[in-house]
């Protein structure tokens, strides 16, 4: 793979990046390396965007992303600057990758051993072991072609796809079907289907609305592995910030941008504390809808309010951060708790929004791997329940749902937490909206539906205001930490084309 995007045209330009999530951090590094004078303004008290950290009473939590997947993307990112991830943080491959509890009492561990996983699939369905191999072969091919020709190479216009090379690369890829139908072609057993589809939560979708192209996530999961960066995802943020500082990026926290004003030859940006920043170019890693609806005058917006209202958004989340006395031996670093039939939960997210009454959820217990995230003799864990964006979010509803989740954990993982909790905090719809200016309080942004994938996502360059660009999960390639890192490269390339 080519690791040298051409962005030298920005040399000497001043650029302000709004927002310090992975997309903003990545863009800032690429532009600074190419010779731009880069200042990054972050609304909150720490960098990382949704990858914030919560530290209290000796506990340290990754508040957002907690899975380190697609290590090749991180290697490529740091490699562009002549660096390696290991210069900034160490990785440990998890074993098992994760544990799954089903609510009928069944339990499996997915291991960093392909043959063991193949045997596991065969136990559930005769012939499923060979189907597993065939599925992963297709998934690997989809990953290799998709990443090189459709992820790292931005194709923002329809004519970019009407090309013989694109047709040659995409031949045989599942571009139009849905994940549910694709997985059913390989496996009949609903639990095996779930094992191949749970990663869709990382894309903010469901099996019935996510394109089959994202079968590539199974290659990420089963072939490439699940890792833990020592110190958590926050350590990755620290590493990229250190890299950015080495490249000359100026980082400013507690600097909430309140307005973007186009001026002759550049921009003026106002912040909540009364500062004004003058710059040649602007890149927004803030929520795309917030940027357009709140920071720009109406005549400089690409999309109407009705456009944003009509989009399909990835779930929000009910998050319960817990510091507990003692161990949680039944839980692994990553644990999933799933109903045997999870369609009802997805319906309560995408079709008939409601607080899920029989939730599928995720438990993260990093203290099982890292003894620095909790005081001695204690465990650190959080529960994440995907819920519909825009739901009513009140203290009373949170307390009621907190009790439901703790009861469910006790019943289905045999892990009683109530009497051992020494630290507790929740994070939910209103917090995503308030802290990250997230539209409808979505935890991730626009879902990856067929109508919101690739060129159908909002562009990196504004067509309403010259010199304004966008990066992050709402743009291409989309949701997830690795994708946001890549979005930074794509934004920098687009900026260099038109700067």
Automatic annotation (TrEMBL):
Gene3D superfamilies with a match to the protein in the record: FAD/NAD(P)-binding domain
Record-linked Pfam families: Amino_oxidase
SUPFAM superfamilies: FAD/NAD(P)-binding domain
Keywords attached to this entry: Carotenoid biosynthesis, Oxidoreductase
Annotated metabolic or biological route of this protein: Carotenoid biosynthesis
GO molecular function: oxidoreductase activity
Biological process according to GO: carotenoid biosynthetic process
Amine oxidase domain location: 23-495
Name of the protein in question: Phytoene desaturase
Organism listed in the record: Halorubrum lacusprofundi (strain ATCC 49239 / DSM 5036 / JCM 8891 / ACAM 34)
């Amino acid at each position: 793979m080519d690791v040298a995007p051409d962005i030298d045209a920005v040399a000497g330009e001043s650029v302000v990046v709004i927002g310090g999530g992975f997309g903003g951090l990545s863009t800032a590094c690429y532009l600074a390396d190419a010779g731009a004078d880069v200042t990054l303004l972050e609304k909150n008290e720490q960098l990382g965007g949704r990858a914030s950290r919560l530290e209290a009473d000796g506990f340290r939590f990754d508040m957002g992303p907690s899975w380190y997947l697609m290590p090749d993307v991180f290697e490529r990112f740091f490699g562009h600057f002549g660096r390696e991830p290991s210069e900034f943080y160490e990785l440990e491959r998890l074993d098992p990758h994760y544990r799954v509890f089903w609510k009928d009492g069944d339990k499996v561990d997915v291991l960093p051993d392909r043959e063991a996983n193949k045997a596991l699939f065969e136990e559930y369905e005769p012939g499923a072991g060979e189907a597993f191999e065939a599925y992963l072969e297709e998934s690997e091919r989809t990953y290799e072609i998709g990443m090189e020709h459709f992820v790292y190479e931005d194709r923002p216009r329809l004519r970019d796809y009407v090309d013989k090379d694109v047709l040659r690369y995409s031949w045989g890829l599942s571009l139009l079907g849905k994940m549910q139908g694709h997985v059913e072609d390989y496996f009949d057993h609903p639990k095996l289907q779930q094992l191949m589809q749970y990663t869709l939560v990382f894309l903010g979708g469901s099996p019935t609305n996510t394109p089959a192209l994202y079968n590539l996530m199974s290659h990420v999961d089963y072939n490439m592995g699940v890792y833990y960066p020592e110190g958590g995802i926050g350590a990755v943020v620290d590493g990229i910030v250190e890299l950015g500082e080495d490249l000359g990026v100026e980082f400013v926290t507690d600097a909430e941008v309140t307005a973007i004003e186009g001026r002759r030859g550049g921009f003026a940006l106002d912040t909540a504390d009364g500062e004004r920043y003058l710059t040649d170019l602007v890149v927004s890693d803030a929520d795309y809808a917030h940027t357009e609806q709140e920071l720009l005058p109406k005549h400089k917006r690409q999309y109407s309010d009705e456009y944003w209202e009509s989009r399909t958004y990835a779930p929000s989340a009910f998050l319960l951060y817990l510091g507990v006395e003692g161990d949680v031996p039944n839980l692994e670093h990553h644990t999933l708790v799933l109903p045997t039939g999870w369609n009802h939960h997805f319906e309560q997210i995408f079709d008939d929004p409601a607080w899920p009454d029989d939730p599928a959820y995720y438990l993260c217990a990093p203290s099982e791997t890292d003894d620095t995230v909790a005081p001695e003799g204690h465990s650190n864990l959080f529960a994440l329940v995907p819920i519909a964006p825009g739901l009513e979010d009140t203290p009373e509803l949170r307390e009621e749902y907190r009790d439901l989740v703790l009861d469910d954990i006790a019943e289905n993982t045999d892990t009683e937490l109530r009497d051992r909790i020494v630290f507790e905090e929740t994070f939910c719809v209103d917090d995503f909206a308030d802290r990250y200016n997230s539209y409808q309080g979505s935890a991730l942004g626009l879902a990856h539906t067929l109508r919101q994938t690739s060129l159908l996502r909002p562009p990196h360059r504004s067509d309403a205001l010259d010199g304004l660009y966008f990066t992050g999960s709402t743009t291409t390639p989309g949701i997830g930490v690795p994708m946001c890192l890549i979005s930074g490269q794509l934004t920098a390339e687009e900026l260099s084309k038109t700067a």
